[in-house]
Amino acid sequence: MNLLKQEAEHGALNVPRLSKYILNMMTLLCAPIRDEAVQKLENITDPVRLLRGIFQVLGLMKMDMVNYTIQSLQPQLQEHSIQCERATFQELLNKQPSLLDHTTKWLTRAAADLSTPPPSCPDSPDSSSVVCPSPSEAANSLEPLNPKIVLSQGFLNLLLWDPKDEEFPETLLMDRAQLQELEAQLRQLTILASVLLVASSFSGSVLFGSPQFVDKLKRITKALMEELKSRPEEEAMLTVSEQVSREIHQSLQNMGLAALSSDNTASLIGELQNITKKENCVHSVIVSIPAHRSADPLVPQMLFGSWCAAVSARPPWRPYPH
Questions:
Q1: Of the candidates 278, 206, 268, 215, which has an alpha carbon nearest to the alpha carbon of residue 243?
Q2: Which of 33, 92, 43 is nearest to 63 (CA)?
Q3: DSSP 186-221
Q4: DSSP string, 219-256
Q5: Which 3 state secondary structure label does DSSP give 101?
Q6: CA angle 272, 277, 281 (to 5 degrees)
Q7: Do the Cβ atoms of 141 and 133 come closer than 8 Å?
Q8: Which stretches in the chain have pLDDT values below 50?
Q9: Which 3 state secondary structure label does DSSP give 310?
Q10: How would you classify residue 268: left for phi > 0, otherwise alpha for psi between -120 and 50, otherwise beta?
C-alpha cells in the first residue's frame, strides 16, 4: 500500500496494471454469480468508470460473503435465538405471572373439547338397529391426549373465534392477522357448502347428479361472494339466492324436469338468505364439523400441519411485541 501511495503521489501509478491485478483477484474470490459482472469490467477502458464498477462489484461480493457466513452459522444462530427467547420470556413470566392466562384458557378449552364424548345418537325411526355407545364406553374409547392433538384442536377453535373476544391467546398475537384470513376463508367455504346443501335439497338428486351443474353452481356462488364482499351480508346473500334459484330453474327446464313451484322457489330463496345466520340449522351443522372431535382427524393436519411443525421446532411462546 505504501508503494502504491508513493507511485500515485509521483504520478507513476500504472492504473491498467493495478486494475488488471484487482480484477484477477476478484475473479478468484467472487461467487460464480459475479463472474459475468467481473468480465464486463475487463472491457472498460475509462479509469473512472472502471474504479466505480470495481467498487460496486466489491460491495456485492461483500454482501455475498455476509450471506454465506450467516447461512453457515444458521444452526448455531437458531439454537442461540431459542435459548435467548426462552430466557427473555422467562424473565417476563417471573415479573408477570398472569402473562399467559389467555393462552392457558385457550389450551384448556381445546383439551376439554377433545375430552368431551361425541354427542349421543339422534332419535330416528330405525334407531333400534343402531348400537349407540353408553357415555362411559364413549369416554373410555377416547384416545389419550397429547400436546400436538391439543394444539391442533386449539387452532381449529381459533377459526371460529369471535373477533370481539379480547381473550385472544397471547402467544399468537403476532399471527392474529393470518388466522383471521384463514377464518374468512373458512366462512366463505361454509357459506358455499351451505348453499350447495340447501340447493340440492330443493332440486333433487337428478340435477345434482350432474358434475357440470354442481361445478357451475360453485363457480357462480363463489364469484358472487367475491364480487359482493364489500356489500352488507344480507344484501349479498339475497343476490346469491336469486341467482342460484334462477340457475336451478333454468337447469330443470333444460333437462326436461318439472320446474320448482312458486312456493318452493320462495322457500329456497328464504333458506339461502338465512344461511349466514348463526341460528340457521344448516350453517350450525357445517360450522360444528371442524370444531368437534368427531371430525376427520386429518383436518387439523391439513390446515395446520406445517404450522404445528414449526411451532414444535421453536419455543411455544413469543415475547409480547413492544
A1: 268
A2: 33
A3: HHHHHHHHHHHHHHHHHHHHHHHT-HHHHHHHHHHH
A4: HHHHHHHHHTTTS-HHHHHHHHHHHHHHHHHHHHHHTT
A5: helix
A6: 75
A7: yes
A8: 120-133, 135-139, 293-322
A9: helix
A10: alpha
pLDDT score recorded for residue 178: 86
- Burial class for 200, CB neighbours closer than 10 Å (0-12, 13-18, 19+): middle
Residue given cell 377464518 in the structure block:
183
| 22 grid coordinates | 484487482
Q: Is the CB of residue 34 less than 8 Å from the CB of residue 54? A: no
Q: How far apart are CA 224 and CA 196, in angstroms?
A: 14
User: From residue 53, how far is each of 6, 48, 66 by CA, in Å?
Assistant: 24, 9, 20
C-alpha cell at 195: 348453499
Residues present in the chain in total: 322
Q: What is the pLDDT of residue 10?
A: 66
Q: C-alpha grid cell for residue 70? A: 450467516
The closest alpha carbon to 68, from 40, 18, 30, 110, belongs to: 30
Please state the φ and ψ torsions of residue 205, each to the nearest 5 degrees. Answer: -75, -25
| CA separation for the pair 292, 119 (Å, rounded) | 10
Locate 298 and state its grid cell. Answer: 386429518
Look at the block and give the residue holding cell 364413549: 138
80-110 confidence digits (pLDDT tens): 887 888 888 888 888 888 888 888 888 888 8
